[in-house]
Design a protein that fits this description.
Length: 228
């Protein structure tokens, strides 16, 4: 059986790598390329900053590969608490990865159109980016579902920090509310301060959880006791 403390520290490192690659690919690159409602400006940015966009595609691929590994490790670490719910959490996060892959293909398709490798108008390219943006909200719902279950498992365990588990449970509703409201067209009904507050909480909880795993790991004796 794998060493759980070593696996926990590995998970913490992967968490932080995902945060770095994800911030670059999901936040920075689109902010430099996409101009809302401006087809020609978006196309011009995509063509003039092709290197940046390629770097974003690489970062997206790294996130996906790291997510696959992290999900398996989290299942391993949380299985002693409740194997069924740990599997549910893993399934939700793998579902998120599938949506990420589809989103990545949308980006690649838009880039190929901009490069002339595929036929497509500027309007089509912008539409692909808009569908990609909605896909982010879709995987956010799956991610929120994952965090909700993971938070419950962390809270119920006696070998991981309960406070962070509780924060993950509460903050997970930020992703759920934001994603569902955007997908259902209810974004103007939900108070923005509520979503921002929950997302801020869950961000700090995730970073805290990652650092805890990386630095402290977990109580191996209690983990093995829970396993039996």
């Amino acid at each position: 059986l794998e060493n759980p403390r070593k696996m926990a520290r590995q998970a913490g490192l992967i968490y932080l790598l995902i945060a770095v690659f994800g911030a670059f690919a999901i936040a920075y690159v689109p902010s430099q390329i996409i101009v809302a409602g401006e087809e020609q400006a978006t196309l011009a940015n995509l063509q003039s900053q092709a290197g940046l966009f390629r770097a974003g595609i690489f970062a997206d691929m790294m996130v996906i590969l790291l997510e696959i590994e992290l999900t398996a490790i989290l299942f391993f670490l949380l299985r002693p608490v409740n194997p069924v719910r740990s599997m549910i959490a893993a399934a939700a996060r793998y579902g998120m990865v599938i949506v990420m892959l589809i989103n990545l293909m949308l980006n690649i398709t838009a880039f190929m159109m901009a490069e002339g490798a595929l036929s497509g108008s500027p309007a089509t390219i912008l539409t692909l980016f808009e569908v990609h943006a909605m896909g982010v909200y879709l995987w956010g719902v799956l991610f929120g579902s994952h965090l909700l279950v993971v938070g419950m498992l962390v809270y119920r365990s006696d070998y991981l920090p309960r406070m962070l588990g509780g924060a993950l449970v509460i903050g997970a509703f930020g992703y759920l509310i934001e994603g569902l409201s955007q997908i259902m067209g209810l974004e103007y009904v939900i108070p923005s301060w509520l979503v921002i507050g929950l997302l801020t909480l869950v961000t700090f909880a995730e970073i805290g959880f990652a650092l805890w795993l990386l630095i402290k790991g977990l109580d191996e004796e209690k983990w093995r006791k829970a396993l039996t």
